[in-house]
Design a protein that fits this description.
The complex is a heterodimer of chains A (220) and B (154). Chain A is mainly α. Helices cover 47% and strands 4% of the residues of chain A. Chain A contains eight helices and two strands, in the order βαβααααααα. A two-stranded parallel sheet of chain A has the order 1-2. In chain A, helix 3 packs antiparallel against helix 4 and helix 6 crosses helix 7. The radius of gyration of chain A is 20 Å and the shape is globular. Chain B is of the alpha/beta class and 154 residues long. Chain B is 25% helix and 19% strand. The longest helix of chain B has 17 residues. Chain B is globular. The chains are: A mainly alpha (220), B alpha/beta (154). Chains A and B meet through strand 1, helix 1, helix 5, helix 6 and helix 8 of A and helix 2, helix 3 and strand 7 of B.
């Protein structure tokens, strides 16, 4: 790449302005980036942003590990046929917190698929045994699968962050993939959809379902 | 942009192995101070208005984000799963700093905001495949009299 002006930032992927709900810090990053427009050449002007994002330094207390403030049943021994029931229980436990998150933020990142979170859970679970009816007929089935899996993750994570706490993105990902029935269902769907007759489902299972950093949970 | 040294090993290899032919030119354009610039955001976060078309797996198109967008109306359908979305879920400005830019414009640190911002799905394609879209966007930005673009990867 040969960008004329470039600001390197020491933040994680997905957070180019550092941290959510940190307007002063975000403004500092933005001012630093815009200031590159007034620098003299020659090209390229590459600059490092000097500060870590707020919350990036881990305290001793945080080293102990984050636990979701909303208690959910243990899913370690949940078998595949029981996943739908377990997810329904989780959704019922999380729903008040999702409502609170939506009200306090004035928005939600969910709603892309256009059906309720319970219907999304039903659709995803049905994929374990068959190729169900596409809940979003204006897009291919694989795309509906991708969006449904993103939506359930977003819904759970929005619920989990409704209470203030020091959860990092890694905490939230580890909780979803390692501590919820919904995460367990998506891991199970990876195996099933890799063998699907539907090319779209196979494609999503291959690279758009389980993040690289969670693939150790797939086992052999 | 995040440094390679801050990524996981597989992510680093994935990026290094991408077919990214070097640009032959090294563009450099100067202009007025930031306080006199008209600024647009171009994001690869796969953002769009809730009622707009979702980004597909290998989507080479763009979506228009009106300058007066209510941040609550933005959703994300980028096709990569290998970056954090919980920041965006809590605050749009961590990927699309529209409120921060509006504040700087109100404080006269930035000249003004463009009428339109643009969004791409920054995954699933090779650089040469997106070039026609990039050229289209450049034309649209020029028509909008934009003379500063904040390119924000995710």
């Amino acid at each position: 790449m040969r960008p004329p002006r470039f600001l390197w930032v020491p933040f994680e992927l997905g957070r180019p302005f550092g941290a959510p709900n940190e307007p002063e810090f975000q403004t500092m990053v933005l001012r630093t980036a815009l200031a590159l427009l007034e620098r003299d050449g020659p090209s390229p002007v590459l600059e490092d942003f000097p500060d870590d994002a707020p919350g990036a330094a881990i305290s001793e207390e945080e080293m102990m590990g984050w636990t979701c403030p909303i208690p959910l049943a243990n899913v370690v021994d949940t078998t595949t046929p029981e996943l739908l029931t377990a997810m329904r229980v989780e959704i019922e436990s999380l729903a008040p917190w999702h409502q609170l998150a939506e009200e306090s933020r004035g928005r939600t990142a969910t709603g892309v698929v256009g059906i309720s979170i319970e219907e999304i859970a039903n659709f995803l679970h049905a994929l374990l045994d068959s190729v169900p009816e596409n809940p979003k007929p204006n897009v291919p089935l694989g795309e509906a699968f991708r969006q449904a899996s993103e939506e359930i993750k977003a819904w759970y994570q929005e619920s989990a962050t409704a209470k203030p706490g020091a959860a990092t993105s890694k905490d939230l990902a580890d909780w979803f993939w390692g501590g919820t029935a919904a995460g367990r269902l998506l891991l199970a769907l990876h195996r099933v959809c890799l063998k699907s007759e539907d090319a779209g489902l196979r494609s999503v299972a291959t690279s758009q379902l389980v993040p690289r950093l969670q693939q150790h949970r797939l086992g052999g | 942009m995040v440094k390679l040294s801050d990524l996981d090993d597989v992510g680093v290899r994935h990026l290094i192995d991408k077919d990214c032919p070097p640009f032959e030119a090294r563009p450099w354009v100067t202009g007025p101070p930031v306080a006199q610039r008209r600024v647009a955001i171009v994001t690869t976060a796969g953002l769009h208005r809730r009622d707009d078309r979702n980004f597909a797996l290998r989507d080479l198109g763009y979506r228009v984000i009106p300058g007066d967008i209510d941040a609550a109306d933005l959703v994300m359908t980028q096709s990569s799963v290998n970056y954090d979305r919980t920041g965006f879920q809590q605050d749009v400005n961590v990927v699309f700093p529209i409120d921060r830019l509006r504040e700087l414009a109100a404080a006269r640190e930035v000249g003004e905001l463009a009428d339109f911002h643009y969004s791409l799905n920054g995954a699933g394609w090779h650089p040469h495949e997106i070039e026609p879209t990039a050229r289209k966007l450049a034309g649209l930005l020029k028509e909008d009299q934009v003379n500063a673009v904040l390119l924000v990867p995710v």
